[in-house]
Design a protein that fits this description.
2 copies of one chain form a homodimer. Chain A folds into 2 domains: about 210 residues, 3-Layer(aba) Sandwich (Rossmann fold), CATH 3.40.50; about 45 residues, no CATH class. In chain A, about 55% of the residues lie in helices and about 10% in strands. Chain A is built from 13 helices and 7 strands. In chain A, strand 6, helix 9 and strand 7 form a beta-alpha-beta unit. In chain A, helix 4 crosses helix 10.
Chain lengths: ~325, ~325
């Protein structure tokens, strides 16, 4: 009982914006602790408010700088902001102390910002399993917006990005090859394109390349039900274009609300998440099979010819389900 | 009802030694057909009699030649013999028409021999899933001995060999590197070592190498409960030493009966088999999750904050079990 009160207490404090309670709750879901389920259940009623924004792009496009600039602009608006850095090499991860980290540190002492780097340690479902739980903590903590920063556009990044309401793909001039390589992937997942380092040579060419690629996709002019990903030019290091990005995030949120797209995405996201947890649970139970006494008994009957192995497997699955 | 009678009929004919019924039953278990379970149930009461002998070894040791020679010697004794070739590149597989295949063809027209190459097509559990079912067919068909021929000593071969009562590992002179590489693996799985091509240079050295390796293992002289794998020299192409191999197979069977080792192995084998089938069943059910209506309903509750994803996963697993 003491434990349950403690979790409820932590959640109550997190909802008031206490950063230490937020940090502790994230640690609990990240470590797949015995209290994970308790935490998840306690958070459920307070979730669903935050706009989850995924930020992804190849290394070198200025992702951390952009995240930092977005946090600053959101704070200036009075929004409560959460940041989840799911890149182990991120400056937020407590690893290398880069300039960006110092910049983020300013925000870290600001009561309206929660910054967290995600580790995969211990959690049954890995990063893809821990991230949605951490998102729920920040959501319940009253964040208006949660930025999920990942690196690259590989499979695991796409998994994480699939947890977002709005996905921002960052590009930089002179990385045309990267665009080609990631073409199919980023066209599918991007709601907003940001061409950062727009003062560099080739920025306009990158924008043209993108426009061309987008023109190849499905196109229905004047059809409000289709979202056409805008392309925003920024110089994040100077804060230029950042408010344009925020405007597009707002516009996307309003579009999702109007069309019901947000509900569809959240529904799909919840299905994926539940399925992943159920799968991990079943795997864990299968691992426990040999420990129990059911399997040897069934095997004995098969050896004696009293039962065939398929019938025995049926009985075993039955016993797992009730176990 | 007609279907059930047909399977019962096939089993009855197979028990009388009808090769076409045997072949059809193996095809049914191999293809994971809807009648697989029916066949497995119908076979169960008639299984457990045959001695299952696994034969394995690297390519080039003369495995097919040895199998063919063993079949000939067993037939000369009046034994009913089954052969399962689980190597897709085996001459028995219907692929390349090698000399060995021609030799085996002689046996194929002999009513006391059933020869079958195993394909993995369709079966949920792959080769490791299909082989024990095919073994049961040959067992029920009244085979005194079933030879399971595999290639190499890789993981899948060890899986297949683990279905045997007695495992024969074949070696040939001049393949010392192979012995070293496979050392740990073959010492654990071999009940009988055969050094084939014993008329070649280095045969005695191969025997000495093996003796040395075996001497490094656990050794309890005069302890009847421990089986010391014998080493038999053969020239399979000339039929030399083959009867010595059969003698060792008999000796091993008698030892297993005396010590209860056969029951222990069969118990372990049945456990592994049931577990694999149960695992395949659970995986298939997980694949069905998205098709049903349970997951969307649960996801809706999670999105609405009425349920947390762990509670939803519990419910989903519950529904799988009863489904």
């Amino acid at each position: 009982m003491a434990r349950q009160l403690a979790v409820a207490d932590l959640v109550a404090r997190a909802r008031e914006g206490d950063p230490r309670s937020v940090a502790r709750l994230i640690s609990m879901v990240e470590d797949d602790s015995p209290r994970l389920r308790e935490v998840a259940a306690a958070l459920a009623p307070f979730t669903g408010r935050a706009q989850v924004v995924g930020l992804t792009g190849s290394p070198g496009v200025g992702k951390s700088t952009s995240t930092s600039a977005l946090v600053g602009a959101l704070r200036a608006r009075g929004s409560r902001v959460g940041v989840l850095a799911v890149d182990p090499s991120s400056p937020f991860s407590g690893g290398a102390l880069l300039g960006d980290r110092v910049r983020m540190q300013e925000h870290a002492v600001d009561g309206g910002v929660f910054i967290r780097s995600m580790a995969t340690r211990g959690h049954l479902g890995g990063l893809a399993g821990a991230t949605p739980q951490a998102l729920r903590v920040l959501d319940a903590a009253g964040c208006d917006i949660v930025l999920v920063e990942t690196v690259g556009v590989g499979q695991s990044e796409i998994e994480v990005v699939s947890m977002a309401d709005t996905t921002v793909v960052l590009l930089a001039p002179g990385m045309g090859d990267g665009i080609q390589a990631a073409k199919a992937g980023i066209l599918e997942i991007a709601d907003v394109f940001v061409v950062n380092k727009a003062d560099r040579d080739g920025a306009d060419q990158t924008v043209r390349d993108l426009r061309y690629m987008l023109s190849l996709g499905p196109r229905r002019e004047r059809d409000d039900s289709v979202w056409k990903p805008p392309i925003v030019k920024t110089i994040a290091a100077k804060g230029q274009g950042i408010s344009d990005v925020l405007d597009e995030l707002d516009r996307h949120r309003e579009w999702m609300d109007r069309t019901g797209e947000r509900d569809r995405r959240r529904q799909a996201r919840a299905e994926t998440e539940i399925e992943a947890i159920a799968l991990a649970q079943l795997r864990a139970r299968i691992g426990d099979i040999r420990g129990g006494g059911t399997l040897p008994e069934l095997a004995k009957k098969v050896v004696a010819g009293e039962l065939d192995p398929y019938g025995a497997a049926d009985d075993l699955v039955e016993s797992l389900a009730s176990g």
